[in-house]
Amino acid sequence: MERDPDALAFTFLGDGEQESGRWTYSRLDQESKALAALLQEHNLAGERVLLLLPSSLELVRALFGCVYAGSTFVVSALPPPRKEAAFQRLLSIAVDCRPRGVITTAKLKEAFQSGLAGAPGLEGLRWLTDEDVGAAGEWNPPDLAGDSLAFLQYTSGSTAAPRGVMVSHENLLANVGQIAEGMALKQGDVDVCWLPLHHDMGLVGMLFGNVFASMSCVLMSPLHFIQRPIRWLKAISRYRGHVSGGPNFAYDLCLRKIAIDQCEGIDLSSWRVAFNGAEPVRAATLERFAEKFAVLGLRPQALYPCYGLAEATLFVVGKTSDRAVVRTYDAAALKEDRVAPAPAGEGARALVSCGRPRGQEAVIADLETARRCPPGRIGEIWVAGPNVCQGYWELPQESARTFGARLAGEPEAGPFLRTGDLGFFDGGDLFVTGRYKDLIIIAGSNHYPQDIEQTVEDGTPSVRSGCCVAISVDVDGEEERLVVLAEVPRGEVLDESARSIRRLVAAEHDLRVHDVVLVRPGGIPKTTSGKNQRHACKAAYRNGELARWESPVEV
User: Where do the DSSP E strands lie in 146-209?
Assistant: First the structure.
């Protein structure tokens, strides 16, 4: 902020298109210190503070205000009205982290105060709103060390119950530095962000990464992107954005929802880093996105596959070559945890390189022996570096298992973070093949659920993109059976869709589908960042809680 205080720091597009506010770095500094003084006056320095704010400049102020005060912030997604499950998630986070204070708006305070304040451990919460900012006295610089907690990042819960990842100031600084180096960020660059700021990709990669590199950030609400994805491309064009991105589903959404004849006047030639991470990066998506939007000036070199996770603060590896690297491998060998290059075509699977580590170490470890895998073998991705976080909040045993892994026969190596993801290195590049907890093992063969899901989505037009989940279930104590869940819109012929799914999976994967469950739009449980929750899907299936269509479909 001292480098150029009058430079533009954040611009917010209140409706996804029109500006509703701009803050320079000087204004951000002043606003953050005013809030920090209020937090200190209420004795919240060194305490956990829950942020209940929509995407806005006020949320940006709250995040930096907590840093300035020396408070540990916990930023949560706002549960939509009448969504009890979403409120219960918020409540579980609050009960787990036991904040001493809450920063919110007057309207949201009225909506949430009674529901939170009566929960165990949440008595005596101090509620602060925008109206209180500026009423405090002088700000005092906090006494912080590198290992002081900056925030708790609650995991999305795609494979397990949410857990609070303890992110220190050292972890945060290390990782934004790795991101800046990996993406060649520089002062004066513009990033465009629609990502939710309660999620690590938006929070660390865009918001804190923006300030670290002295960039200018254009923010919009995730809802406004989802409603009209073209707003994202319009913002990149209008503000000459250099850096922007999101999970693979965001690129797929643009491909489905944006027609080129709607894009008159859009120029994407400034887009230098179009990062794609947080879920499996699909080769077909990269190819189609580059091809479709080339007429708008998008260069294929901009596509930037990467890989990371909250437990590593965010970023682990990113693209290092001029273009995204896509290689094809024998699909049958991959099922046996072997890596065998193969020509493109039947029996081959295309995988996208996520790049190489930046300022950290990544190894492939055997799941059974904990030894380093030899070349040509698939194992669990383990990571070590200054960005690897301290552990899970008040879960010492789980923290030791996840963050304290050691390679057998290499006592001086590590400790490593066990990511729970499977992959391999080929020519120095990391290829991610899936999550080992999500592996579907039938008749002794490994099947990656995302492969089955892609087959169903590609071959069944009635299935909504990004809304198919393959799981395995134990039926009557016997071996695992395959179940496919898929969202289809009102008016589809259910029997025909189900038969199509069974035929496709049998033909492509030599698997019999035990059950096809066709559910209403919105019926697949998802994380707050839009990822399918396989763990929650399996639980909902077992408990009979899925919003199935009846046959014939109701009209």
Answer: 149-154, 164-168, 190-193
